[in-house]
Amino acid sequence: MTLPTTSLDKAKIKFLLLEGIHPSAVEVLRAAGYSQIESLPSALPDEELKRKIADVHFIGIRSRTQLTAEVFAHAHKLVAAGCFCIGTNQVDLAAARERGIAVFNAPYSNTRSVAELVIAEAILLLRGIPAKNAAAHRGGWLKTAENAYEIRGKTLGVVGYGAIGTQLSVLAEALGMHVQFHDIVSKLPLGNARQVGLAELLATSDIVTLHVPETPSTQWMVGAEQIAAMKPGAILINASRGTVVEIDPLAEAVKAGRLLGAAIDVFPVEPRGNKDEFQSPLRGLDNVILTPHIGGSTMEAQANIGLEVAEKLVRYSDTGATTSSVNFPEVSLPSHPGKHRLLHVHHNVPGVLSEINRIFSDNQINISAQYLQTNEKIGYVVIDLDAGSSERALEKLAQVAGTIRTRVLF
Ligand SMILES: NC(=O)C1=CN([C@@H]2O[C@H](COP(=O)(O)OP(=O)(O)OC[C@H]3O[C@@H](n4cnc5c(N)ncnc54)[C@H](O)[C@@H]3O)[C@@H](O)[C@H]2O)C=CC1
Ligand SMILES: O=C(O)C(=O)COP(=O)(O)O
């Protein structure tokens, strides 16, 4: 790796934003003095992503772009990646950490948008509106109360009682629903909600809604067996990740009339952008609401996400602060007026800090402030020092065994 001998000029720092990230992000970056910003409306094909990522210092993505170890292998200049969304499953966080690339996200900015969509879908499906609407568009007139129900008094089963699941729990109770939830962790129930096992939840909920992250434990967690275990006439909603529900048995259950309906926002394979065709066995089923992964796509959520993640990238670029990073030790740092700041990312093995301090002492370099945080894999040391010594110190720091990456800021 070629080491910088000076802090990189802001005019040379390049940002690549993909997947139609809200313009609020560009505004934050520009206001912070960054001008080299390319913002594209879609995800990129793999080869183009590898080519473009090689030339940028920061990348912003949403849920579609896969930042794999192979992609990171091309990211020679990349300092940080921002997920302008909640999920970070699309990023190989360990590979990023190994290369000293910090990853950030927006853990709460679209929570409410997802919860509101789920409530809306539950009401529409309980009334059979998607099918009645589709029929009316074809000239049909399905005026009937059969299989149309109020949401009041129904039981909502929430799988994954995190930020979205709990928000939903509160909204659902306000509408008079009973809420039960399943989570791998014991959670404090809000209101009158109660925690139950997955089998009980499936067997007794009128509406089952999924709000788990994409992990090995959630992969295909709702398949043929779980769908068969749901109450006859129940509704399934998935706005979590496309790998959580097996689509074929779901399509069969809907066609067979075992389920009243379903609302699916996320799919095992999703189009890269709005110009690509969406393919799914669920197409053509009138009592299934199909949405193009827009659970978090509201103007409010996207504008807030743009601000939140861009601010995290700016703070990291300007000061080295890693507050709320999802793969780096968290260091919240004051500004460093009049001083130069060295950033040192290293493997978390014994002796690195003492070696760093020995170097400073042997070379009589005065440290004005030092911050260290570690996680199980890496350590992150930030050192403020006099301008005159930073170039020499950086050179020495880069030679410390276990060093992953160094940077200087001033
Ligand atoms: N459709 C969309 O546009 C959006 C989708 N999402 C998806 O929703 C997911 C959930 O978001 P948040 O509620 O903010 O996440 P969160 O991290 O606050 O909550 C997730 C909950 O799931 C639980 N969980 C994990 N594995 C589980 C398992 N195997 N069984 C049961 N529970 C399990 C966790 O303990 C946690 O309580 C995100 O990871 C993301 O993938 C998020 C925002 C928008
Ligand atoms: O926030 C999330 O995890 C989402 O799934 C939303 O993804 P998006 O930014 O709409 O591609």
From TrEMBL:
<keyword id="KW-0028">Amino-acid biosynthesis</keyword>
<dbReference type="GO" id="GO:0047545">
    <property type="term" value="F:(S)-2-hydroxyglutarate dehydrogenase activity"/>
</dbReference>
<dbReference type="InterPro" id="IPR050418">
    <property type="entry name" value="D-iso_2-hydroxyacid_DH_PdxB"/>
</dbReference>
<comment type="pathway">
    <text>Amino-acid biosynthesis; L-serine biosynthesis; L-serine from 3-phospho-D-glycerate: step 1/3.</text>
</comment>
<comment type="function">
    <text>Catalyzes the reversible oxidation of 3-phospho-D-glycerate to 3-phosphonooxypyruvate, the first step of the phosphorylated L-serine biosynthesis pathway. Also catalyzes the reversible oxidation of 2-hydroxyglutarate to 2-oxoglutarate.</text>
</comment>
<keyword id="KW-0520">NAD</keyword>
<comment type="similarity">
    <text>Belongs to the D-isomer specific 2-hydroxyacid dehydrogenase family.</text>
</comment>
<dbReference type="InterPro" id="IPR029753">
    <property type="entry name" value="D-isomer_DH_CS"/>
</dbReference>
<keyword id="KW-0718">Serine biosynthesis</keyword>
<dbReference type="InterPro" id="IPR002912">
    <property type="entry name" value="ACT_dom"/>
</dbReference>
<feature type="domain" description="ACT">
    <location>
        <begin position="341"/>
        <end position="410"/>
    </location>
</feature>
<dbReference type="InterPro" id="IPR006139">
    <property type="entry name" value="D-isomer_2_OHA_DH_cat_dom"/>
</dbReference>
<protein>
    <recommendedName>
        <fullName>D-3-phosphoglycerate dehydrogenase</fullName>
        <ecNumber>1.1.1.399</ecNumber>
        <ecNumber>1.1.1.95</ecNumber>
    </recommendedName>
</protein>
<dbReference type="GO" id="GO:0006564">
    <property type="term" value="P:L-serine biosynthetic process"/>
</dbReference>
<dbReference type="InterPro" id="IPR045865">
    <property type="entry name" value="ACT-like_dom_sf"/>
</dbReference>
<dbReference type="InterPro" id="IPR054480">
    <property type="entry name" value="AHAS_small-like_ACT"/>
</dbReference>
<dbReference type="InterPro" id="IPR006140">
    <property type="entry name" value="D-isomer_DH_NAD-bd"/>
</dbReference>
<dbReference type="GO" id="GO:0004617">
    <property type="term" value="F:phosphoglycerate dehydrogenase activity"/>
</dbReference>
<dbReference type="Pfam" id="PF02826">
    <property type="entry name" value="2-Hacid_dh_C"/>
</dbReference>
<dbReference type="Pfam" id="PF00389">
    <property type="entry name" value="2-Hacid_dh"/>
</dbReference>
<dbReference type="GO" id="GO:0051287">
    <property type="term" value="F:NAD binding"/>
</dbReference>
<dbReference type="InterPro" id="IPR036291">
    <property type="entry name" value="NAD(P)-bd_dom_sf"/>
</dbReference>
<keyword id="KW-0560">Oxidoreductase</keyword>
<dbReference type="Pfam" id="PF22629">
    <property type="entry name" value="ACT_AHAS_ss"/>
</dbReference>
<dbReference type="InterPro" id="IPR029752">
    <property type="entry name" value="D-isomer_DH_CS1"/>
</dbReference>
